[in-house]
Amino acid sequence: MATATAPAPRTDAPRSSEAGRSGGGGRSVTRYVLLVILAVIIIAPLIYILVTSFKNRSEATGTPPTWIPREITGQAYDGILGSTSTPVLRWFGNSMIAAFGNAILVVVTSALAAYPLARMQFRGKRIVFGAIVATLFIPPVILTIPNYLIVGELLWLDTLTAVIVPTAASAFGVFFLRQFFSTLPRELEEAAWIDGANRFQRFWYVTWPLLLPVTMVVVLFSVIQTFADFQLVYVLTGGGPANATHLFATYAYQIGIGTGLLSEGAAISLAMFPALLLVVVFQLWYIRRVENR
Q1: Closest Cα partner for 223 from 282, 150, 140, 141?
Q2: 237 in helix, strand or coil?
Q3: Which are the contacts of 290, defined by CB distance < 8 A and separation ≥ 6?
Q4: Which residues contact 211 (CB under 8 A, 6 or more apart)?
Q5: CA distances (Å), origin 13, targets 9, 10, 22
Q6: b/e map 155-171, b = 16+ CB within 10 Å
Q7: In degrees, to the nearest 5, what angle opens at C-alpha 245 toward C-alphas 239 and 250?
Q8: How far, in whole angstroms, is CA 56 from its chain's centroid?
Q9: How far is CA 278 from the centre of its chain?
Q10: What does the DSSP 8-state code read for residue 4?
């Protein structure tokens, strides 16, 4: 009687798997090396600015440039923080008010526009959304003169309101939130509708809370853009020191203190801190929220 013999086990599968893991590990190492190189290229100028702000005048202007100060001094910061002509705290306050005030308006207007474009049906919806997206291709400099004329008619020139309001409608915010509103299941809103919630209650209590991380991305982009804006502040506030933001004041008022290199390095270092702190705090918050899901 013939007996069936078991087929010999294949030995090539584990080797293939190990080879795949080996190749994947090599690609991961290459990817991390490229990311580290890219990070160094991006961060190196910022580190050099920070290091230069702690040098003395002769070393800051000497050649070849040095990365590590031979003598650490804070004379550039003393010149900025100790001068009555450079109210740094006021400039910081103006920047924070303008940045977060604009961010709040951007989030509100973007969410109220994105929700109906994603959830409601009305005539001309595609045309409206297409027109909003098309404005992303318009260079902001083209809108400078119209913004100036409108702000002048509203008597907002040389005020922080002129910095906050003109950019309160963000096409990027509308597009970004609309895409994520479209991904939410409609069953959530239908359940709330059965419970008696109206359209605004379904938006406020059901859909928008689910997009809090996405909303924070819009806030982050808006804050950094307003904090780093130069041209709009210069045109709409008239260049006066009372309503100047920190970045604009860095260029407009710091040149005459010590040497331009030292004063600008110290002022830019002070200006970088809030933006970097905001990015780090937001990233930690986002990672913790994702891990707790």
Answers
A1: 282
A2: coil
A3: 213
A4: 177, 180, 181, 184
A5: 10, 7, 14
A6: ebbebbbbbbbbbbebb
A7: 80
A8: 33
A9: 9
A10: P
Helix (H, G, I), strand (E, B) or coil at 278: helix
Q: CA–CA separation, 293 vs 289, rounded Å?
A: 7
Torsion of CA 219, 271, 234, 93, to 10 degrees: 70
CATH class given for the domain over 77-291: mainly alpha
Tokens representing 5 are 């013999």
pLDDT per residue over 248-279, tens digit each?
776 665 544 444 555 666 777 777 777 777 77
Which residue, chain included where needed, has tokens 């010590």? Answer: 258
Query: Which residues make Cβ contacts (< 8 Å) with residue 47, sequence separation at least 6?
Result: 67
Q: What is the mean pLDDT of the chain?
A: 78
State how far the Cα of 233 lies from the Cα of 249, in Å rounded to an integer. 10
Q: Where are the alpha helices (DSSP H) in the chain?
A: 12-52, 57-61, 75-81, 88-119, 125-134, 144-153, 161-164, 171-181, 186-194, 199-202, 208-210, 212-227, 231-236, 246-253, 260-291
**CB proximity list for 7: less than 8 A, separation 6 or greater:** none
CB distance 227 to 245 below 8 Å: yes
Instruction: State how far the Cα of 166 lies from the Cα of 129, in Å rounded to an integer.
Output: 20
Structural domain boundaries of the chain? 25-73, 77-291
- Among 181, 160, 165, residue whose Cα is nearest residue 116: 181
How far is it, in rounded angstroms, from Cα 268 to Cα 53?
9
Least Cα distance to 174 among 202, 201, 134, 205 occurs for: 134
Q: How confident is the model over 32-69, as pLDDT tens digits?
A: 999 999 988 888 888 887 887 787 777 766 677 777 77
Judge contact between 216 and 263, C-beta under 8 A: no
Alpha-carbon distance of 214 to 237, in angstroms, equals 32
